[in-house]
Specification:
The complex is a heterotrimer of chains A (237), B (279) and C (311). With 279 residues, chain B is mainly α. Chain B contains 13 helices and three strands. In chain C, strands 6-7-8-3-9-10 form a six-stranded mixed beta sheet, sandwiched between helices. The chains are: A alpha+beta (237), B mainly alpha (279), C alpha/beta (311).
Chain lengths: 237, 279, 311
């Protein structure tokens, strides 16, 4: 009797795990479909880079994106500064594009919202992405946080806030946290006047992490951007 | 006094060497601009190699504002030499010519004469720095265009938006005028001890070079005395290109330079009022 | 009695324990031309530099028109014009520009007409626009005098104004000094090595030697005819010295050496002496009178102590 009960419980457990896995996969695929539906966009943005060795004011400009991996920041006469492999500024490139193993990792609260956590492991061994952990708001079918471990870029964390463009999966605000290295030039070469003072916000990070905050003021989505916009000549004066 | 000042300025600007100074400023500026025109990208790549490992920077980095900042580095050695060339000659040169003797047979007080020489040297210095601003900033912007300005410190990369640059340059050039006035004052002080101008000019440059080396060596032995050396504060103009601008530090530097200038001028007056004119 | 225009009292100056000027006192009256004489290194230029405030005396005082002159009273130089040593000017400027600069610094409002006037007075008309570096030494001297006189000072201090000039130039400067004195009533203190030039222009003489004043007196008092030094070149004759020492000419201290008879007496007695020599069978081949003033100067400056010669 007891054995039969145990067997029943075991079977029910397996079925529920399988069901859960199916749910997680379904959730990931749905999320990914929504994100990938945006082929291109042109956004008016304000960008603030906070890295210990950088002093950069808020930059205003136009951010162009074309899938799968083209991005350019137009500063209208000013300098554009984007992290190397600037594709990391889109959600799209922080989640695996091909086949992946999706694991349900429970739930968590972000900003008062209940999110479902899924872990995504790409099946492609050559992918730079090793593991993506996504906090999904199932109600709106958007990612509120993505934490991606990469082979070359370390761990990237992206926090997102949504507004008018939530239906397209495009955020109003994006905060990317990334690993940064130190920067040094010989003092005799630069002949500094003063010692550098670390940014208050970055004092405790010991220079290991930096952030890029982007505020998206408006979007023009899927307008069929030309590849010419992304050529190096377009970026230079 | 006004007449004396007019005469001193007349003498300075009738000498060919004065215009040679302005010519040299133009030449130095031109050489740097030419170098950056041909090899600016390599320079920038080298300077930004640490940043470029993690960030892509696009746009007109090698613009007029950046080039001007490089040109202003000449304020360390080359411009002080040109200032000393005229200021160091102002008394000693007159002694060599024998005109100091003739000047002092006139009913003008020695203090008035020294003041006139200081003021005329100051005006020359100001005009030289203004000329530097015109050829450095004006020409550089004309050749290289505008854009956001990049300032690279030993451990910091600073970006200044293009609409935030010009006031910084105005302030920097004003500070440079003050720094060069200190050099002029030193030259005039040394000039009062000499009967020919080569001595004061070389001595001024020797002092500036040695103290600049001292100001830049990162040794505990020198770190205690650095705040009191005027060359440490001569580069205060760089503070205007920092973020945030170290206003207090710049204020201290300006005060130190003013104190040195006044001390040099005061000592000159003291010595000159007691000096027997034997030339 | 009017106070002197320049009154120097006990002026003393040492350089590194060397006394260049030693307790020097003299006074210059208005309208006079004072010849300031002394050997090289006697202290003339040092004295003149002190008078102009170029050098500060260790002791003593200088009064200009009765007012004490010091570094804080340089306005008193308004009525003095000076050339100290050679007249050095700005070579890269023209003569006119140099004159204009120093006129502007004279403390008086000098009009352009006056500049033209002095340029003409010193004989530089037509050359005033040339750069001074192209001037000859004589032209520079003349420009120096122009600069010293442009503001019409009451007192002129001229240190070797004929230095480097040819005889014509010397004569021109001499005439200029005389004109400034007689026609314009200027008081002049002039130093020179050319004693006979001083003799021609000076009304008074000051002689200094090793920083000390030897004599200060009107020229007339110094140039007594009886002090004229006469040299007679004659055929050497044995016993002539003895003969002349036993004659009436002995009172004039005659000395015979290397065929030259030197004697100090009034030149009016030369014919008589000549006659006596002929009567003695001595052939006379030449007679020269050494300038009495020069003789006086040489006598004074060859003395070992100043005290023996102070008048």
């Amino acid at each position: 009797m007891i054995r039969r009960s145990l067997n029943t419980i075991l079977i029910l457990l397996c079925l529920s795990v399988q069901a859960s896995a199916a749910d997680a996969n379904e959730l990931f695929n749905t999320l990914r479909r929504k994100i990938f539906s945006v082929q291109d966009y042109t956004a008016d943005v304000k960008m603030k880079i906070s890295v210990k060795y950088m002093r950069i004011p808020q930059l205003a400009g136009t951010l162009y994106f074309k899938s799968p991996d083209k991005m350019r920041l137009e500063r209208h006469g000013g300098l554009s500064i984007l992290p190397r492999k600037n594709i990391n500024l889109t959600i799209r490139n922080l989640i695996p594009a091909g086949s992946a193993t999706v694991i349900d990792a429970g739930q968590a609260q972000i900003g008062g919202k209940t999110t479902r956590i899924i872990k995504v492991i790409p099946e492609d061994d050559k992918s730079d992405l090793v593991l993506a952990k996504i906090w999904v708001d199932e109600t709106s079918m958007v990612a509120l946080r993505i934490e991606t471990a990469t082979r070359n870029e370390g761990t990237l964390t992206m926090d997102l806030e949504y507004g008018r463009y939530i239906s397209n999966g495009l955020p109003d605000k994006l905060l990317l946290t990334l690993d940064v290295k130190d920067f040094r030039m010989p003092k005799g070469m630069t002949m500094d006047y003063t010692e550098s003072r670390p940014d208050e916000a970055l004092k405790d990070t010991k220079g290991k992490k930096g952030t890029i905050q982007i505020t998206y003021l408006s979007y023009k989505i899927n307008t069929g951007l030309s590849d010419k916009i992304f050529t190096p000549e377009a970026s230079e004066p | 006094m006004k007449q004396l000042l007019q005469i001193e300025l007349f003498k300075i600007f009738r000498r060919p060497r004065t215009y040679i100074s302005f010519g040299i400023v133009t030449a130095i500026t031109f050489v740097i601009q030419l170098a950056m025109l041909t090899d600016g990208k390599s320079y920038m790549s080298f300077a930004l190699q640490g940043v470029n490992e993690q960030f892509d920077i696009h746009g007109n980095m090698i613009n007029g504002y950046f080039i001007t900042y490089i040109i202003l580095q000449t304020l360390l050695i080359q411009i002080p030499l040109l200032v000393a060339l005229v200021a160091g000659d102002t008394l000693a040169g007159e002694a060599t010519l024998g005109t100091l003797r003739l000047l002092l047979t006139k009913p003008i007080s020695r203090n008035q004469l020294i003041l006139a020489k200081f003021m005329s040297s100051f005006i020359y210095t100001v005009l030289l720095v203004i000329w530097l601003a015109v050829v450095a900033l004006g020409l550089s912007v004309l050749i290289f265009g505008r854009g956001d300005m990049v300032n690279i410190k030993s451990d910091t990369f600073i970006l200044i938006l293009q609409n935030d640059v010009l006031w910084r340059y105005a302030a920097a050039f004003c500070f440079a005028m003050l720094a060069m006035t200190t050099i002029a004052s030193l030259s005039i002080l040394l000039s009062v001890f000499a009967d020919n101008s080569i001595g004061p000019i070389i001595s001024t440059m020797g002092i500036v070079v040695v103290l600049t080396i001292l100001s830049n060596l990162d040794l505990p032995l020198f770190n205690h005395i650095k705040p009191y050396i005027f060359t440490t504060h001569m580069i205060g103009w760089k503070g205007f290109f920092d973020d945030p601008v170290p206003v207090r530090q710049i204020g201290i530097s300006a005060m130190v330079l003013i104190v040195y200038t006044v001390a040099f001028a005061g000592t000159t007056m003291l010595v000159f009022n007691k000096k027997d004119i034997k030339s | 009695m009017a106070s002197p225009i320049l009154d120097v009292r006990s002026l003393t100056k040492s350089f590194n324990h060397f006394k260049a000027v030693d307790d020097l006192s003299f006074a210059i009256n208005k309208g006079a031309v004072y010849g300031f004489l002394g050997q090289n290194g006697a202290g003339k230029s040092t004295t003149m530099r002190m008078l102009m405030g170029l050098i500060f005396p260790d002791n003593g005082s200088i009064l200009i028109n009765g007012s004490s002159f010091s570094n804080s009273q340089r306005h008193l130089l308004r009525n003095i014009g000076a050339i100290i040593e050679r007249p050095d000017m700005y070579g890269y400027l023209s003569g006119w520009e140099n004159l204009k600069i120093f006129a502007a610094l004279s403390g008086k409002n000098i009009k352009t007409n006056r500049l033209h006037e002095v340029i003409e007075m010193v004989g530089l008309k037509g050359r005033e626009k040339d750069k001074v570096k192209a001037y000859s030494q004589g032209m520079k001297q003349r420009l120096g005098i122009a600069i010293a006189t442009v503001h019409e000072p009451d007192l002129l201090i001229l240190d070797e104004p004929t230095n480097g000039l040819d005889p014509q130039g010397i004569a021109e400067i001499r005439n200029l000094i005389l004109s400034l004195s007689k026609d314009h009533g200027k008081t002049i203190l002039v130093s020179s090595h050319l004693l006979h030039e001083i003799e021609q222009v000076a009304t008074d003489i000051i002689i200094i030697h090793k920083g000390k004043k030897m004599i200060e007196a009107p020229v007339g008092e110094l140039l007594h005819p009886d002090d004229t030094r006469i040299e007679i070149t004659l055929q050497p004759a044995p016993g002539l010295q003895q003969s002349i020492n036993h004659s009436g000419w002995a009172q004039y201290s005659p000395e015979i050496s290397d065929g030259v008879l030197t004697i100090k007496m009034n030149p009016a007695q030369i014919p008589a002496l000549n006659k006596w020599l002929v009567e003695q069978g001595i052939e006379v081949s030449g007679i020269t009178t050494q300038h009495s003033f020069e003789a006086y100067f040489l006598n004074i400056t060859h003395e070992t102590t100043a005290a023996d010669r102070t008048v």
